[in-house]
Write a structure and sequence with these properties.
By secondary structure, this protein is of the alpha/beta class. The chain is built from ten helices and 13 strands. It has two domains: about 5-175 and about 215-240 and about 275-295, Rossmann fold; about 185-205 and about 245-270 and about 300-315, UDP-galactose 4-epimerase, domain 1 (Alpha-Beta Complex).
């Protein structure tokens, strides 16, 4: 039975991926420094081996890769605003950490390396939907660092034969996403605040659009990418092929939750792009990918998960 390494396995995407791998009866090793990941996300993952360490340490990367067949590299500092405030930190976590992992994976003779890229690499290119052949125009240090990781993956494939694949994530959401951080995803913040009867702030005029992608779709794509024969050396968009505005998604969430609170509107965030929409044709063709959970269903599932978390929190506070 193969061993799968999930870096950032205590984070939102990594913990969901590790959970699915374990549910399939596979061996899982998690590497996380818990700087942004949470130990609470490891609940239910007792079958996984956990290494507490940093991808900026080459020796830790080497130890984590020993005996591993597949690497899912999810570890990063996933925030545009954070990267604007701290460009060197973003670069080290996203670019330097990636080359460390690639180098360790190569030495350990890892079979395939699946890298979590970011749709932020496209920047404000006007073409919609975004196709992988579009020339990237990153607008934030985070986007630059994630794009550098993509290029390193391709370079290791062409120079060293390491089967590296990049999945460019488009605004992933779902259970286990942290709403408490100032850098949290907008949907986790909206849902949590609406459930608590608190007013939400929309950055910009509400017309900003995103291809929101439920976590189960991303997990499925990662599992497809580790075996697809055409995948090595390539980049694939990972979205649903549908975008909605922030105002639309706020209204949907408010209706589902039963809130009549109107949102406030604030300034747009520095480094953000206005519109994002994935063309998933290449992923469909090469990976056999198709979204397994549509947007509305994913939003309802996410609301119910956060509702349960709020109930547990309230009971613990009594």
């Amino acid at each position: 039975m193969a061993t799968n390494l999930v870096t950032g396995g205590a984070g939102f995407i990594g913990s969901n991926l590790a959970r699915e791998l374990l549910a399939r009866g596979e061996r899982v090793r998690i590497l996380d420094n818990f700087s942004t990941g949470h130990r609470e996300n490891l609940e239910g993952l007792e079958g996984a081996e956990v290494i507490e360490g940093d991808i900026l340490d080459p020796d830790t990367c080497a130890r984590a890769c020993q005996g591993v067949e597949f690497v899912f590299h999810e570890a990063a500092l996933p925030s545009v605003p954070r990267s604007v405030k701290d460009p060197p930190g973003s670069h080290h976590a996203c670019a330097t950490g990636t080359i460390n992992m690639l180098w360790a994976a190569l030495a350990a003779k890892v079979r395939r390396f699946v890298y979590a890229g970011s749709s932020s690499a496209y920047g404000n290119t006007p073409t919609l939907p975004k196709q992988e052949t579009i020339c990237p125009e990153p607008r934030s240090p985070y986007a630059v660092a994630k794009l550098a990781g993509e290029h390193y993956c391709r370079a290791f494939y062409f120079s060293h034969g390491l089967e590296a694949v990049t999945l460019r994530y488009f605004n992933v959401f779902g259970p286990h996403q942290d709403p408490g951080s100032p850098y949290s995803g907008v949907l986790s913040v909206f849902i949590t605040r609406l459930l608590r009867g608190e007013v939400c702030t929309i950055n910009g005029d509400g017309g900003t659009s995103r291809d929101f992608t439920y976590i189960d779709n991303v997990v499925a794509a990662n599992l497809l990418a580790r075996h697809a024969p055409r995948a090595p050396g390539n980049v694939y968009n990972m979205g649903c092929g549908r975008n909605v505005t922030l105002k639309w998604v706020y209204d949907f969430l408010a209706k589902e939750i039963g809130s009549t609170l109107a949102p406030l509107y604030g300034p747009e965030r520095a480094g953000d792009v206005k519109h994002s929409l994935a063309d998933v044709t290449a992923a469909e063709h090469d990976l056999g990918y198709e979204p397994i959970v549509d947007l509305e269903t994913g939003l309802r599932k996410t609301i119910e998960w956060y509702r349960e978390q709020e109930r547990i929190f309230q009971m613990a506070a009594r």
